[in-house]
Amino acid sequence: MPVLPVGRALLGAAGMSDDNIIHFNPWRDFNDAAPLADPFAVEPDADQIARFVDVVFGYCEGLIPVRGFVDKGQGKDGRPHNIWIDADATAPEKLGTFAGWAAREGAAVYVIPGTVAETGQARAADVLQMQSLVVDLDTGDIPAKLDHLVHHLGRPTLIVESGGRTPEGATKLHVWWKLTEPAEGADLDRLCQLRGEIALKVGGDTHFRSAHQPIRVPGTVYHKGGLTRLVQIREAADLEVDFTEMAERVADMPPMPGVGMATVDSREKPAIDDVLVTPVHEGDTDRWSRFEGASAAIGYFLRLVHEGRMSMDEGWTAICGYNAAMLRPAWPLDRLKRETNRLWELHIKRHGPPLIRLDSAAPAQTELPAFTLGALLDDTSPMPDDIIGPRVLTPGGLLVLGGAPKVGKSDLLIALLVHMAAGVPFLGFTPPRPLRIFYLQAEIQYHYLRERMQQIGLPPELIAAARDNLIVTPKLRMLLDAEGSARVAEAIRAAFPDEPLDILCIDPIRNLFDGGPDGGGENDNAAMMFFLKDRVEVLRDHVNPDCGVILVHHTKKLSKHQVKEDPFLALSGASALRGFYTTGLILHRPEEDSTQRRLEIELRNGPALPAKLVDKVKGKWVEINPMNERLVRPEVGARHDAERDRKRDVILSILLDEAAEGRLYTINQFAEAFENKGGLGGKDTIRDRIAVQATKGAIKFIRDGAPHGLGPSRSRFGYLCVEGMVMPTDGEDVDPATGEVTLASIAVLPTHYKSPQTGALLEVENPHVWVYPEGERP
What we know:
Layout: E1 4-6, E2 14-16, H1 46-57, E3 63-70, E4 81-86, H2 91-105, E5 107-111, E6 130-137, H3 142-153, E7 158-165, E8 171-183, H4 185-202, E9 215-216, E10 221-222, E11 229-230, E12 232-236, H5 243-252, H6 262-266, H7 272-275, E13 280-281, H8 290-306, H9 312-326, E14 327-328, H10 333-351, H11 373-378, E15 398-403, H12 409-422, E16 437-441, H13 446-454, H14 460-466, E17 470-472, H15 482-495, E18 503-507, H16 509-512, H17 525-543, E19 548-554, H18 560-565, H19 576-580, E20 583-588, E21 597-603, E22 612-617, E23 620-624, H20 634-660, H21 667-673, H22 683-695, E24 699-702, E25 719-722, E26 726-734, E27 741-747, E28 752-754, E29 761-763
Parallel strand pairs: 13-14, 15-19, 15-20, 16-17, 16-18, 18-19
Antiparallel strand pairs: 1-2, 3-4, 3-5, 5-9, 6-8, 7-8, 7-12, 10-11, 20-21, 21-22, 22-23, 24-25, 26-27, 28-29
Helix pairs in contact: 1-2, 4-5, 8-9, 8-10, 12-14, 15-17, 20-22, 21-22
């Protein structure tokens, strides 16, 4: 049985083993007799404890702080006891041992859902890692709150019945979402902030804004008020969520009507004069939170707009100014806009229409175009010129360029735009002439933007040809809403007063996204369609209905296999985006230790284009022909080649050694028997290596194992055979010179081989002569 270090009253350390258990009150009972078993007692559930440990600590490193103290209402006394256990494979068993002891003592078992570095540490500042989000629902209409959470945040990993009941009789719940990786440092602070924000929006326990807030462990026993129940898992799912996506969902989740923000509303509201001049930091370390301050400031400026004392544009500018000056750190602009829209609609609902409001002209209605099949067949007029050929960006088309952060998509985009502005082909993408481009970018500030442009590394004549055709904005603090679209349209007309725009590029979507009156985020299909149709297309119609649009977007985390199967599933946000664009480009890095990127291409207005392998060589983007010799990072490729050769040698050596012991293998049996041995990797990797060596002639096959005492094989190929393979027999060989006696052996000869051209299984002509395909002898 594992040994658990048991703490003193709060943070001290002591020992606990089978022979030395520290009781909560050792003077409570002088009876030394063994206690009688209670047939109705509730016992801890080891399986539930193990499931909980995996969800909350499975990826963490360090020590888990565990607390045990007597539940109230039992008529028992006892001081708290703490232990710290390693977050490793032994944690479930150790926690189960402690839970059994606590159950006998009438004690609750809690953990801090994060790890610390040393025994004795249990403060918020001591927590180093957390890998889950949790909300404690302990009051009000708990089923409605759970439905609200599931609807907006997605299905949780665990739903735990904590043992308590509300006055109305509802079961109190803990709701958990497991993250794909532990949060540390700034991400840990953000995770605690999200826990508090979730609690505020659904009326949960806001104490979980603190990292050191403990919580009951499912599978342990609840004793409060003399009632004994098992803290149990109601629902469990093998689900994990990405931290960034979860943060977006929390930001998008509206407060529950009449419930959310109850904690905020119950506190005395700060005076607006104080709010406008007082910085407020995240983590609830000030007199009011960032949410309270932002809500008060937004409400103040919206009242001025509603009363006609400020235009909507001026009001939004003032709100952005407060956000930048007083919120530490500032809210993202998309979240600020959503909260502004929500409060504006609420204010109009309560106080009626505003006295003065900016009106945007609705587009004129035109006759719906429709054509007969005959008209379409008879129209043989020339096709319009591609903006970027071949059919990569067509007149009125929408191109989306996606890629993970730091993969180089902005650098690739700038090089593409400069070439297009100069009328020069780039990576096979061809403009018909020098193009007029407006690059609306919202990530890089002015000085760093000019530094990047000056370091672009393109030929001087190319840059000279593009100087006046490419207009770039520095980082913008705005959204592409009605007012923002008007400002952008005016800037485009000022930049190109005489000729129409050819390309409008927006980089990235996230920083300029406006989800419409409902304030939806990028993950909301309705909000994405609003942004594309009511913002992007309306803006294009104002500047040039035939111009092409390029949108730059981030991708979410997917496995390499998922990216290989369908790279365009990696685009972040709603699926409506993929159904809307005419061209999709995804830039990703197939190998993390290689600089080469793969540019996937999806066209709607033309024939499919093959993916391109690209890299930046001496400051210039080049397309790499995979059939040619490596141009960059040859040492990386050499390491991969050496690893493949090593696995080949290990496989051949194992087959020889195993045959010498009297064992032959089929492909599948060898892969399963030697998985993760000799550095061969998983069984799929082993099968792939065997298939390659069979094609190269290093491995052949024996269809009938009867001569070797094995009988026929059920495998299509049979048993594996390599050159020089021998097997022992029942006889003996005697060395005539020394008299040494050894077991006799016979050669194992192949009967079939794999055709390197067709992959078919063919008979070996002469098994005594090992033949390799030309140039493939190892």
